[in-house]
Amino acid sequence: MTALPLTGITVVSVEQAVAAPFATRQLADLGARVIKVERPGGGDFARRYDTTVHGQSSYFVWLNRSKESVVLDLKAPSGRDVLEELLGRADVFVQNLAPGAAARLGLDTASLTERHTSLIPCTISGYGTTGPWADRKAYDLLVQCQTGLVSLTGTPQETARAGVSVADIAAGMYAYSGILTALYTRATTGVARAVEVSLFEALAEWMSQPAHYTRHGGTQPPRIGTQHATIAPYGAYTAADGKQVLLSVQNEREWAALCEDFLDRPDLVDDPRFATGSGRVTHRDELNAIVAERFGRSAGAEAMRLLTEAGIANAGVNDVREFLDHPVLAGRNRWHEVGIPGGARVPALRPPADLAGVDPRMDSVPAPGEHTDRVLHELGITAPRIAQLRTDGVV
Known about the structure:
The protein is 40% helix and 14% strand. The protein has helices spanning 19-29, 58-63, 77-88, 101-104, 109-115, 140-146, 149-152, 166-189, 199-206, 208-217, 252-261, 277-282, 284-295, 300-309, 320-324, 327-331, 372-378, 383-391; strands at 10-14, 33-38, 67-71, 92-95, 120-125, 195-198, 234-238, 244-248, 313-316, 335-339, 345-349. The strands form three sheets. A six-stranded parallel beta sheet has the order 3-2-1-4-5-6, sandwiched between helices. It has a three-stranded antiparallel beta sheet with strand order 7-8-9, covered by helices on one side. β2, α2 (58-63) and β3 (67-71) form a beta-alpha-beta unit. α1 crosses α8. The longest helix is centred in the middle third of the chain and has 24 residues, at 166-189.
């Protein structure tokens, strides 16, 4: 069996919520040993976000498979001593503690690199560890608001948050890729470089297109539901049976095909209102009325068949249940079962990046402190000392 790419890499993570656990779970998928340090009295608070997955949190099940859970009270000197022993054997340290907390524990980048020269520290913060907002807490929706994403999402009448934790996911992805880059740099140069990612700056990068549009166009893209702000027709329309179908026209060839093969209106191909992309956006309301009327004469499945035959990209607007049953996920064998605390097994998606000849690691989601004793024994900590730590409430 082919060894996983990160076999032999040890990651210690003092993590909570979404961003850092998402980064470290992807490292675990690739074979890294991820030791998740959790606080006594319940661990990562994401464990209690909900109880929908056989009593477990849907967030926690998604983000924490293939990890080892160690409970440590880092406010206690003996707990920090144990963490220090773990860091002495680690390749990567990841933390997304509240502003200032890492420094108070001696876990800031400057302190760590002085004590552990080969360790790669990764800090995930809200607005950066320096600058005017370094001391502010940041949660996903706050960052969606601060970057302007919420102002672009929704309908003309009302803003809306993105339906997933997009700021956390963006930060987790950049932390993951930054850590991989740092590991490669250490392997090729011997230098261990620290990684820092903020939720705000990660999502700011994703906002670059509307930022350019607004800076140079004078106004920001309009908020128009499922329609595209700068391309038309590109959006969802309701078919005769109530099914919503989204279509996208990206160029003049596709526009001509839509007119001739779906709308049955070849006269519109060269209509001055619609002959160019900018013209179609300017006359969006008139165009939408024509497209909507045509959809109203066909059921959703028939409309999608005709659009596909015409070479027009289209998709039904699925709900989550339809997504779960998607033929692509089934046909490409993307679902694999993982264990969760309590003994149940639940379907989970394979990592989206396939490496030829390599099967990702998809082990169980840990219970709080499930691996504490084993990890402490590996550090050479004696049974009496472990018992004392337990008596003191440190583990």
